[in-house]
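pinned: reference chain
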Amino acid sequence: MERVGILVVSYGSREASIIDSFCRSEKYNIEIYVADKQRNPFNVERAKQHTVIPDLTAEKICQFAEKYKSEIDFGIVGPETPIIDGVRDIIEEKTSIPVICVTKRYALEASKVEQRLLLQEVMPEANPRFKIFDPKDYCDKSSEELGNDVKTWVEALGGIEKIVIKPDRPGFGKGVGVGGEHFFTIEQTMEHFHSIYGGEAKERVIIEEKVEGEESSFQAWCDGKSLAPLPETRDHKRAFDGDRGSNTGGTGSYKDKTDHLPFVTPADKDKEIEIVNRLFNRLKKEAGDLDLRGMPFYAAFMHAKAGPKILEINSRPGDPEIINLMPILRDDFADVCYKMIEGNLGRVEFEPQATVVTYAMPLSYGSYRNKFSGNPYVDLSEAYKLTEKYADKIRVYPGSMELRDDNRTYALKSRAVCVVGVGDSITEAREVSLDGIQHIDGSLWNRWDIGSEEHINKSISHMKKLRNLG
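pinned: its structure tokens
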């Protein structure tokens, strides 16, 4: 078997699922070189070389790549921060190792403001109404004038319950405030606004209309010349069951056995593809052949009465959404990566199965507790043993977990571990995922309604109502 050395820049469970996919290759002898945020136990076990770079700075990642450049054939990057910081540009310039992610210039995730302006230029009908509040525009104005402008725009959108406040910079799934859920009075609205706008950074803030509908996640691998759309997934950002609580990096997600979700029609999926391709073709006019290689568009869509609207665009694989897909990838992922590098990707094939991802988190995550000072030790052994029952229908991917000198694993501050269930239906996949979650021993918590029949039926009914079908 041909040996292939792969650099993986890792943050958590998302990259564990990518590494797992590489390691399932029946065609190549895969050797993994991991630049990791922490000593992820899954990655440590599978890596030929593993290093910890807590801040995941592009320069330090490049130094690791340089050390093993004669053994690394290509690299792939999962986390957003190194991509935004230009890790691909640096590694390719200094080592000539091809890297699968967009170049720094096309990391759209770096600015929600620029995303909105791009979408307004290319596909305004997919853009919610929005207004940008830029500190540069208020240098010579009083705080009272700024407050009046904010209040006037809030009223123009229909009041507090009709708005969303967003920071310009990426918030890793957090930082977004929704009227009627995170703030209820004009005083609370202004407090949330100033929590982003204020401070030394003086960050731009977007206030946009809250779009009523149902959300889906669109992802596509790209060889720089064309997009290969992937099956749709549904992410759950809110901390608690019933989509309540603060926004998080994602508490879980599900995928149906088809390429579209139960509440979305094939025509809706086609419309998503059309919108993203128009954005892609606009960027291709100025980009090089391979600048957009990787996953330039991981887009959150809201399916509304007037059609799909884009909530935000990310320039990397989704976490948890890509985790739904990697276990059921039919193609050899190393081959998929080589095709992206060579510029001849075409389609990416998946098994026609449903998947459910459930995350387990530390008690202090998602504002569940202000503080937890108990033992962070987590034992995954009983969850791993479920492969005896489910075989390849279950995957356990540690995320924000650390393998320490005592050879035990400990939960850190973010999403600790996810369990993927695979089945012929969402219900079947959910049962497997929750069985795995229940076999984890540790002070963690999780949502119980990811992919639930009740939640899905509610989404279906909502879309029928919006479309005047029910």
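why pinned: The radius of gyration is 22 Å. The chain is about 30% helix and 25% strand.
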